[in-house]
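$ run holo --ligand "flavin mononucleotide" --emit tokens
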Amino acid sequence: MKKYEEVPYFKGIDDRRNILSKDDLKGNYTILIFYPKHLPGEYSEEVLQISQQHIKYNKISGIEGFDVNLIIVTPDTEEYLAGLRDENDLDITFISDKNLEISNLFNVIERDSVQRKAYILDRWVRLRDVCEDTNPIFVDKLYEKIENIVFDDFSIDNNIEFRRAKRSFSIKKVSDLEIKKIIEAATKAPSCFNNQPWRYHVINSDEKLKKSFEYIPDGNYWMKYSSALIAVYSKKEDDCALNDSRDYFLFDTGMSVANLLLQATKMGIIAHPVAGYKSEKLKKFLNIDDESVLITVIAVGYPGAGEYLTEKHIEVENGPRIRKELDDILKWN
Ligand SMILES: Cc1cc2nc3c(=O)[nH]c(=O)nc-3n(C[C@H](O)[C@H](O)[C@H](O)COP(=O)(O)O)c2cc1C
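-- output --
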């Protein structure tokens, strides 16, 4: 099982004799811990500590109603586990895995015995982390790991936060392979009826680039230092066009470009879309049909020192990201 992969489907009987399956875990984070039969010695103390942490787990996000599923799977019978829960007033759900079906699915059996191991799953029931450290660190490690995951998930994605319309390119060429990868990310965008109306034309040969730069106005002088230009075009006929002027080709292509920008950021590549180019001339040069709109051109390159930038652009490059307040763009109900 790899990180970010959904765990396999499983179903078991809990200590209240209810059926509990993977589907019941959806929508909450889950700590799924496997223990050997009869929770020997030191482990029973550990289970008590983990149960006491449940309240703390539920407070990690600071959001009311946030609930972490805390589930222990052992080969013990439901009666044994119900007794254990009641005796110790445990705030935990047990699954009785008598035939070791779930333990086998999660690969926790070694030398005919279930090994103590915790899986941390997210709201999609994807594997996010594993904890198998030895006593007495286990309980603390478990808390630290789930706390890190939730903090990370609840913050804005690193690449969304980091992406900027940068202009300082290095002279090093971005490889075709990397360009293909960022365009592949672009193709993962949703589109109306899955029409995928976006079209990409990469210009990265020296000769074609030189000619294309002739269609870039002086205001966008910095684009002439990029390693590649990606022309993005689409046409109304290639996507949903609904009666009330809702033509989705521009919208869907925009979503696709957003994916491209984020994938590029993730790979350490600047991808800066612009509207400033001589559209008709560039369209002709690239043999783009008349019906299509050349929506944007994306300047691509590795980050560099940008010695060629004007004072104004140096300031923007290192300046704060200016955004409207949420209240100016958001209404509720
Ligand atoms: C459709 C579009 C057209 C743009 N045109 C230009 C342009 O012609 N020249 C330029 O330097 N930046 C251009 N930009 C970049 C924007 O100025 C930049 O995204 C905006 O100021 C926000 O800054 P940020 O992307 O760093 O957050 C364009 C961006 C978009 C999405």
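-- notes --
The pocket of flavin mononucleotide is lined by residues 164-165, 220, 273-276, 296, 321 (CB under 6 Å).
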